[in-house]
Each structure stands twice: as C-alpha cells, then as structure tokens.
Amino acid sequence: PLCPDSAVTHGALVCRPAADGRQSCDLVCRRGYRNSLPVSSFPCVTESRRWDDKPLRGACQISQPLQSVSSSQLWTSSSSSCSQISSLQSLLFNMMTSRGLCSAQV
Fold first, then answer.
1. Is-contact 37 54, C-beta < 8 A?
2. Is the pTM of this model over 0.85?
3. What are the tens digits of pLDDT across the range 66-87?
4. pLDDT of 14-54, one tens digit each?
5. Neighbour tally for 42: CB within 10 Å
6. SS in 3 state form for 53-85?
7. Alpha-carbon dihedral angle through residues 2, 4, 10, 14, given to the nearest 10 degrees
8. 3-state helix, strand, coil in the chain (%, to 5)
C-alpha cells in the first residue's frame, strides 16, 4: 500500500494500482480467519498518504462455530413491554460479546 502499513494480524492488504490520487486495498484474511468488519475495501489518498478508513489491526478473526446463548425473561402484559424488550436485547448482546462475538443485530 502507498499509505502507511496497518499491520493487519492474520491477514494482508492487497492493493490495486493507484489512479486519480487514490489507491484501493482489499483485506484478505489467512485461511481459517475471516474479516469481522462490515467492509473489506480500504481507500488510501496517495497524495497525503492517509487512509480514508484505516484497516483495523484485529480485523481478521478466527472462524468459530456459532455458539448458542440462552436466556429466560418473564414477560408481563403491562405497558412496560418495550422497556423489557430493550432490557432483553441489552442482556443478550452483553452475553454474546463477553463470549467473543464482534457484532450482532438483535
């Protein structure tokens, strides 16, 4: 890359030739690892040698089988059901991230 190397652990940046003052680099993870980010292409402004969105060092993470997380919640038919849903979402997200989940949509 024409921008400073971001030293991605367990992966590398594969860059296309610069054009119009920009260079686009794709994140490629080693076998057994996957990109945990929502994007895989990282643009670099060649004149300033700065990343538009710098690749994160730990973007490549080892693939693991899905883990199941269970939780029980007593649901009541009161007007506070929305706050109970929010509480359950927060509980599930905290449980999953504590077990190594990087992102989730609940």
1. no
2. no
3. 555 555 555 555 555 666 677 7
4. 999 999 999 999 999 999 899 988 899 999 999 999 998 88
5. 24
6. CCCCCCCEEECCCCCCCCCCCCCCCCCCHHHHH
7. -10
8. 15, 25, 60
CB 3 within 8 A of CB 44: yes
Which residue's entry shows tokens 């706050």? Answer: 83
C-alpha distances in angstroms, 32 versus 4, 47, 68, 69, 89?
26, 35, 21, 23, 30
C-beta separation of 1 from 50 below 8 A: no
Amino acid identity at 54: K
